[in-house]
Design goal:
- The structure is a single chain.
- It is built from ten helices and eight strands.
- By secondary structure, the chain is an alpha/beta fold.
- The chain has one domain: TIM Barrel (Alpha-Beta Barrel).
- Strands 1-2-3-4-5-6-7-8 form an eight-stranded parallel β-barrel, surrounded by six helices.
- α1 crosses α10 and α5 packs across α6.
Length: 271
């Protein structure tokens, strides 16, 4: 019996339409699914509705821990900020309509003013909470600045809002050069979700990107240690399989989801 909940990040089976992704996640045995706004927008452009997505989720009893993602909110200032925040508001409204708990707020690609970013994160939190969803601060291992647990936690702490959270991800911890031991710095309520994946031995760490991720247990990361740290701080919510592999996208999406859950459980339930 697992002490974690299992979630499918829909990027793992990207080519499938969103309603099919929802059906596959449930049939494969996940209790939750993360949805991407690009997929939601494609569904709407093809004549679908947000209500259809919400009903599909409810029919299959799937939780939506997050939708992905918000950009531009951290670094944008001046006249361009109004347009960026209008797009954030549009995506936040979508997240609320599909019943998401969090919406992931991505970091800037380059170096930015952390004090400004913290102020903007607090504003984003207040906007999201006023509408019914919690923006979660993400770090990305391949960006120049916000690429470790510590850097994301700095923004959350400077924002000074009790609802501030971050997104954890073994690949990004590794790619950013940080230490998994920093998980111990967090309280469980500060973790929106734990994306789950592994990293290969090659190419070298600093050359890896999203498409290099592999199934949990198929790489070189000490995932069991990371799960031990999560247990020690009291985190017992979602492990969300998140891969971006074109070779997997070319395969049967149900089989990819099924094998992914099998491999996730093999790591989580033996650690």
């Amino acid at each position: 019996m697992s002490d974690f909940l299992y979630c499918l990040n829909s990027s793992t089976i990207r080519p499938a339409p969103i309603l099919q992704k929802i059906e596959i996640a449930a049939r494969a045995g996940y209790s939750a699914i993360e949805l991407w706004h690009d997929d939601i927008d494609l569904h709407l452009r093809n004549g679908g509705t947000l209500a259809e997505i919400r009903h599909a989720l409810e029919d299959r009893r799937l939780v939506v821990p997050t939708t992905i993602y918000l950009k531009g909110w951290f670094e944008t200032t001046g006249p361009a900020r109004a347009a960026e925040m209008a797009e954030c508001r549009r995506r936040i409204d979508q997240a609320v309509e599909v019943g998401a708990i969090h919406i992931i707020a991505g970091p800037p690609a380059g170096y930015s003013d952390h004090d400004q970013g913290a102020r903007h994160y607090r504003e984003l939190l207040e906007l999201g909470l006023s509408l019914g969803v919690k923006p979660a601060m993400e770090f990305l291992g391949f960006v120049e600045d916000i690429n470790t647990i510590e850097s994301a936690l700095e923004i959350v702490n400077k924002a000074g809002h009790p609802a501030g959270t971050i997104v954890l991800d073994p690949f990004h911890i590794y790619r950013g050069g940080g230490s998994p031991e920093s998980i111990a710095l967090l309280k469980p309520a500060q973790i929106a979700i734990f994306h789950f994946n592994d990293a290969p031995a090659y190419p070298p760490r600093v050359q890896q990107h999203d498409h290099d991720r592999v199934y949990p247990g198929d790489g070189i990361l000490d995932l069991k240690r990371q799960l031990q740290l999560l247990r020690q701080i009291g985190y017992n919510r979602w492990l969300s399989l998140e891969l971006f592999r074109e070779d997997l996208w070319a395969q049967d999406p149900f089989e990819v989801a099924r094998i992914g859950l099998q491999k996730t459980r093999a790591v989580a339930e033996s650690s």
